Amino acid sequence: MKRLNILSNVNLKLLTLVIGLYFLTGFTAQAQNRTIQSQNQNQIDAQTQTDGLNGRQTLIQQLNLTRDQIQQIRAINRETAESRRNANQRQAQARQNLDSAIYAAEPNQADVNEKLRELTEAQVALTTVRVQNEFRIRQILSPEQLTKFIELRQRVAGKFGQTNRIFQNKRLRQSE
Hints:
Elements lengths: L1 H49 L4 H9 L3 H36 L6 H32 L2 H17 L5 H11 L1
C-alpha cells in the first residue's frame, strides 16, 4: 500500500511536470508568435506606406468612399471603441491570470484549468467584437468597394506570405 502511494505521488509529480512543460512551451511559442506577428505588422505598415496605401486617407481615396460612408464607419468605430478596449483588457488580464496560476509557488491544476477557461472566453469575446465590427463596416461598402478592399488586403498580405482565412474561403467558394 505504501509503495502504491509512493508511485501515485511520483506519477502525480511527473504529470504536473509534463503539464507545466506543455504550457511553458505553448506560451513560449505564443510569445514568439506575437513577436513575429508584430514584426510582420511593422513590415506591412512600412510596405503599405511605400505602396501608396499609407493611412486612412489613401484607403478612403482608393475605395472612393462617400462622405456618408466615412461618417458611418467613424460612427461604428466610436460605438464599438469601448467594447473593443474592454475585450482587449479582459483578454490581457485573463492571460496574465493564467500565467500567474501556472507559475504559482504551489500550482493547482483546477485553478489553471479555470484560468484557461477564462482566457478562452476572453478570446472568444474579443473575436466576436472584432467580427461584428468588421461585418458592420463591410455592409456599408458597395460591391465594387468590397472587391477593391479585398484586393488591397490580398496584395498587402501576399507580399509577406501571409495567408488569410477570408481570402482562402473566398477562393474555395469561387472554385466550387
